[in-house]
Specification:
By secondary structure, the chain is α+β, with helices and mostly antiparallel strands. It has helices spanning 23-44, 51-61, 66-77, 84-90, 98-150, 156-200, 212-229, 243-250, 252-267, 293-308, 339-355, and strands at residues 233-240, 274-280, 283-289, 312-313, 320-322, 326-332, 361-363. Helix content is 62%, strand content 10%. A hairpin with a 2-residue loop joins strand 2 and strand 3 (283-289).
Length: 364
């Protein structure tokens, strides 16, 4: 039905050979094929040639977002029109790509190394401080003894000189001890700052919910524990309906408040055995421990009805926004070979909820 193209760029934009066996010719043919698919898609559905539509079509037909191409194909096979409104609604929002994941992994490694260095420095400083303190106490006792001898011995002048040197050494030892104590305190303060930075890196600052990075860590842990206890584990992906329309009509500030409102509704169902996170853009992900797909869908459906019963107003101009809803798809983690496949199944169920009219929860 459609194909993905692996494109390679020419060094100077010109092909020395255009034969099918030539690398330049193959790259040229691939680009031409991709352009034909993009133009055919826009013309076939009477879509304007805008930068947004070109980005949308390129994402689909270049293979950058296979799910998008799948949605287009399914809609065409069903005989449903692909309108500008549908394109706008399905234009992908920012997602974490491989380079971002690599950067995050490198950041994690650096933070771990820094944490280890701080721990090692604190331990070394503590040991040195204790040793210095013990040495200082011993030295102080000897200084007292030398001072007593100095007052009665015939070599009082020499002993007094030695006592003065010992006192100077004692003072310097106490200074070093004080500096080491301060260094240990600074290391502890730095460790606390690092812990806060690590926590901040796992929080979505718009909603206060855990972010995608934090969710993936929780998912791994819950999978291990659920497998050990032979427990149910269901995952859901939720997406705010017609969110782009709200953004375009009322502005991004209002859009942010809508995201916050949905986050609050979903946050109410979170707990020790239910984890809610912002997955990116207007998407949320929910992990249900100890719940079957049917039970998880029922919990999510209650939250959906709670949100749908409200009417929203634009605070800036008092214009009514109206009803805000979300759609969701739920899947059983253990019904699939790996978590990614389970998330993909939940996403496909979400897409089905969207195609069936939105404001509903579908099960995989």
């Amino acid at each position: 039905m459609f194909k993905f193209l692996n494109r390679s760029a020419d060094a100077d934009g010109e092909a020395e050979s255009t034969g099918p066996s030539s690398p330049h010719g193959a790259a040229h043919a691939a680009r031409r094929d991709l352009l034909e698919q993009i133009s055919d898609f826009l013309l076939r559905h009477e879509l304007e040639v805008t930068s947004e539509n070109l980005v949308f079509a390129h994402a689909a037909w270049s293979g950058a977002i296979p799910r998008l191409a799948q949605r287009i194909t399914e809609r065409e096979c069903a005989g449903e029109r692909i309108t500008q409104a549908w394109v706008d609604e399905n234009t992908p929002v920012e997602k974490s790509d491989d380079s971002l994941a690599d950067q995050q992994a490198e950041l994690d490694r650096l933070m771990t190394r820094l944490d280890t260095s701080i721990s090692s420095f604190a331990a070394t400083t503590s040991k040195a401080s204790n040793a210095t303190n013990a040495y200082g106490d011993s030295l102080e006792q000897h200084v007292g003894a030398i001072s007593q001898v100095a007052s009665s011995a015939p070599t009082a002048e020499m002993v007094a000189s030695l006592a003065g040197i010992a006192k100077a050494m004692l003072e310097r030892t106490r200074q070093v001890e004080h500096e080491m104590t301060r260094s240990a305190q600074e290391a502890e303060t730095l460790r606390q700052s690092l812990d806060r930075a690590r926590r901040d890196a796992e929080i979505d600052h718009l909603t206060g919910l855990p972010n995608r990075r934090a969710f993936e860590a929780v998912l791994e842990q819950e999978i291990r524990e659920a497998q050990a206890e032979i427990d149910n584990l269901s995952v859901a992906i939720c997406d705010i309906d017609h969110f782009k329309r709200v953004n375009d009509t009322h502005g991004h500030d209002t859009g942010d408040r809508i995201i916050q409102a949905v986050a609050q509704v979903l946050g109410r169902i979170s707990g020790d055995r239910c984890h809610v996170a912002r997955h990116g853009g207007e998407e949320f992900v929910v992990l249900f421990r100890g719940k079957s797909v049917t039970e998880a869908a029922a919990i999510l459906d209650d939250a959906r009805e709670s949100l749908a019963a409200r009417n929203f107003i634009n605070r800036q101009n008092d214009e009514p926004i109206g009803q805000v809803t979300f759609s969701g798809g739920v899947a059983n983690i253990f019904a699939h070979p790996d978590p990614r496949e389970a998330l993909r199944a939940a996403d496909e169920a979400l897409y089905r909820a969207k195609s069936e009219g939105r404001n509903r929860i579908c099960r995989s």
